[in-house]
Structures are given as structure tokens and as C-alpha cells.
Amino acid sequence: MRRQGLEAGALLTTLNEAADRVAMHGVRRSILEAQAEAVGLPLWQVPLPWPCTNDDYEARMAEACRRAVAEGFDAIAFGDLFLRDVRAYRERQLAGSGLTPLFPLWGLPTGELAREMIRGGLRARLSCVDSKVLDARFAGREFDEALLADLPATADPCGENGEFHTCVYDGPMFRHPLAVETGEIRDVNGFVYADLVGAQWQESSR
Questions:
Q1: Bond from prior residue into 109 cis (ω within 30 degrees of 0)
Q2: Cβ proximity of 190 and 130 under 8 Å
Q3: Which of the ends of the chain has fewer CB neighbours closer than 10 A, N or C?
Q4: According to the model, what pLDDT value does residue 200 have?
Q5: Is the pLDDT score of 206 beyond 60?
Q6: In sequence order, what are the residues at sequence separation of 6 or more whose Cβ sits closer than 8 angstroms to the Cβ of residue 8?
């Protein structure tokens, strides 16, 4: 976004109310809040009930969008890469809301993007793996060149098809890295979660 002359004013994330974790990623609220503090942006948390219907999701996201417009925001950015149905859904939901959907990564080759992020200093671990498409042993692994080399040819290097989700603990946008350790590995209906724990400030080497 910054390369495109855009500055973020806040971070928006949904959480599973029952688990108190980021929806789908399984990341603890404490780590999410530490990430936002490290980036230096306000964190808007959208709690979702569990189980969550699509109507529930849309109602709570619409409420967050109304708040954004009321506070002077005019756009919302998504990290979507190439799934046209997902992009079209977001565009439909935001039509007439007063917020313009932005897709700053859209169309970038995902293999090149993954390597550019790693070379640029992004540090992340796989917090969730869909074991139907990726070996469960990938859960908790570092998102690095070794992981990219080990991914099967059918897996997207950025996990765009839902093969995996990540938790970032350091990068150029962080003022301080987070110390995270991989704790318990849990299989929940075929989704394998690595419980990342121990979010504390470290001395930055930069």
C-alpha cells in the first residue's frame, strides 16, 4: 500500500468469540494485539459468534464498515491475490457503503510475491493447515525458502486457496519483532492448528 502511495489508518480483523482467536487462523488475541502495537496502528476487532452464519458475518462486518465511514475512512484494503469470486463478493458487499475496496496485491505472481516477502524481512509461521490438501506436519513451520521448496506443486506459495494460514511476527512494518513459540498442535475437523504462544517484545536487531 505504501508503495502505491496509500497509508493505512487502522487494522480490521474478525475473531471467533468462543475461542477468542482470529477466525480461521487460530491466532490468539494476545498475539493479534501485540502485532497491532508493533505495527503502530489501531486494531478494530470484529467478534463473530460460533457457529457463525453468513448473515451473522455480514451483519457484523456491515456494522464495522458503518463505523469506518463515520470516522472518515473512504476505503478498505484486502490481501486477495487471484480468487475472482472472493473479490466480486467483497465488491458487492461494499457497493453503496461509502468504502472503496482496494486490492493492492491483486494479480501479482504468488511465487514471486512469497519470495519477495521473505527477502524483504517478513517473518511468519504457519498457524493453520488444511490437512486435506497439505501435510499436517507443515503446521507451525517457518514461512521461508525451505518451506516453499517443500510445498507440493499443487499448493499455492501464498496459501491463497486456503492450503494454509500464517501469523506474522516480524517484518519491515514492525517496530519490534514478537517472540513466538509453537505450542500444541491440534486437529479440528481436518484443520491442523499450531498454537503460537509467548508473544513478548524482543530487542530488535535492526
A1: no
A2: yes
A3: C
A4: 53
A5: no
A6: 1, 41, 77
Which residue from 55, 60, 78 is spatially nearest to 17, judged by alpha carbons?
60
Q: What is the separation, in whole angstroms, between the first and last Cα of the chain?
A: 22
- For 91, the 3-state DSSP assignment is helix
Spacing of C-alpha 167 from chain mean position: 7
Span 158-204, pLDDT tens digits: 999 999 999 999 999 999 999 999 999 999 999 999 999 974 544 44
Residue with cell 493447515: 129
DSSP string, 16-67: ETTTTEETTT--BHHHHHHHHHHHT--EEEEEE-SS--HHHHHHHHHHHHHH
Cβ atoms 167, 25 nearer than 8 A: yes
Query: Residue 32: which of 54, 9, 16 has the closest Cα?
Result: 16
Short-list 101, 98, 97, CA closest to 89: 101
Handedness of CA 65, 67, 73, 74 (dihedral sign): positive
Dihedral class, residue 79 (left if φ above 0, else alpha if ψ from -120 to 50, else beta)? alpha
Q: Residue 178's beta-bridge partner residues?
A: 201
| Rounded CA separation 29/96 (Å) | 32
Q: Tell me the three cell numbers of residue 116.
A: 519477495
